[in-house]
Amino acid sequence: KYLGAAPVAMSQGAAYEALQKGVVEGTFCPIEVLKGWKQGEVIDHVIETKALGYTTAMFVVMNKKKYESLPPDIKKVFDEVGEEWVDVHGDVWDYADRAGLKFVIELGKNIHGLSPAQEKKWIQSVSPIIFEYQSKMEKKGLPGKKAVKLLRDLVAKYNK
Asked: For the chain, which terminal residue's Cβ has fewer other Cβ atoms within 10 angstroms, N or C?
């Protein structure tokens, strides 16, 4: 809504038909979705920007009590494998995004980038979302400011 749209929450599975039938006019999604969920078939334009970060966060979790009950050698295996797969998963996701972009280009869709001024405007437009999140976390006694700073640092680091 901060970018002028009326947000509608739905699953990726429902988004294809909603786009196809004109129920929604666009989607905010990872580029890979355009091929993986075939949404590139039912859109005409793609705005490619990483200025706002990425729309998907992925993680693997385990019950903390269960993890703490494991012997140190087993914990070490979980920790090492988890660390090793961070880069592997990231590389695979980057590959999927490239395939998604190639898919829409081959379909003849229009790909648009944002100028630095437009990116700055978008970042400023959505900043209330970040502030609201930060405030909610701080009210719960969680490090909202620290989390937002880390997020911004990571976006700057990987957005090169």
From this structure: C
Q: Is the pLDDT of residue 52 over 90?
A: no
Domain extent listing, the chain: 115-160
pTM of the model: 0.77
Contact status, residue 48 vs residue 112, Cβ threshold 8 Å:
yes
Kindly state the tokens that stand for 148. Answer: 């937002």
Residue 56 has pLDDT above 80, yes or no: no
Residues 6+ apart with CB under 8 A from 48: 31, 101, 111, 112, 113
Angle between helices 116-139 and 144-158 (to 10 degrees): 150
